[in-house]
Amino acid sequence: MHVLLLGSSPETLDWHEGPQGSWDKIICADGGLNLAYKWNLEPDWVLGDGDSYQKPYPLELKQETYPEKKDATDSELATTKAIDLGATEITLVGFLGARLDHTLANLFHVASLEDVFCTFYEEWGKAFFARKTNEIFGEKGDLLSLIPIKGDVEGVRTEGLEYPLFDETLYLSRTRGISNVFLEDRCVVTIKKGSLLIVHLRNEIE
């Protein structure tokens, strides 16, 4: 099951058309309701503490409310709800930006998830944690950055990028994988071992 999660990053509200696709369920983390209404989406759930939506949740929506003083962010609660509902794929929109602490917490939380494939989407592009083989579609001139997260990433190979890697190691403490460039509209990244964040930035946004 594919679930769309909508968060409350204020930058995302400037994205006029929003993400394109189809989802089995839509869950809003608190102020993510603002994105749903902006893009004429019909959410199935809303949950959170109300600090970013700043008014009562609509009564017609399934909802869970939490106190502001709690041990998990609204983002983590929304992700947990998606998994509880049976999600095998999650698209997260509005979870990167605004506050660095929330952005990092969201990335590391998703990095810990198993048996569910998550992609962060924003107007500038997308970010996701690599599987063993990753086929990525974009446009010539798009940027692709490969960022080790939990340690060194071994056996990295790339195809279709300006600066190729041939079964090499990307080190956690170095920046070699930043700002590679699409040669055409498709590239492939494969890894053998490690946790690798792939960030795809659209050239037209740059």
CATH architecture of the largest domain: 3-Layer(aba) Sandwich
According to CATH, the fold-level topology of the largest domain is: Rossmann fold
Helix share bin: 10-25%
Q: State mean pLDDT (0 to 100 scale).
A: 93
Query: How would a textbook summarize the main sheet?
Result: 10 strands, mixed
The arrangement of helices and strands along the chain is EEHEEHEHEEEEEEEEE
Cα-to-Cα separation, first versus last residue: 33 Å
Q: What structural class do you assign from the helix and strand content?
A: alpha/beta
- Say which CATH homologous superfamily of the largest domain is assigned: Thiamin pyrophosphokinase, catalytic domain
Q: What's the arrangement of strands in the largest beta sheet?
A: 4-3-2-1-5-6-7-14-9-12
Low-pLDDT ranges? none
Can you tell me the number of structural domains? 2
Describe what this molecule looks like in 3D.
The chain is an alpha/beta fold. It has two domains: 2-123, Thiamin pyrophosphokinase, catalytic domain (Rossmann fold, 3-Layer(aba) Sandwich), CATH 3.40.50.10240; 133-201, Thiamin pyrophosphokinase, thiamin-binding domain (Jelly Rolls, Sandwich). Helix content is 15%, strand content 33%. It has three helices and 14 strands. The strands form two sheets. It has a ten-stranded mixed beta sheet with strand order 4-3-2-1-5-6-7-14-9-12. The chain has a four-stranded antiparallel beta sheet with strand order 8-13-10-11, with no helix packed on it. A hairpin with a 2-residue loop joins β6 and β7. The chain is elongated and about 55 Å long. The protein starts with a strand and ends in a 5-residue tail after the last strand. The mean pLDDT is 93.
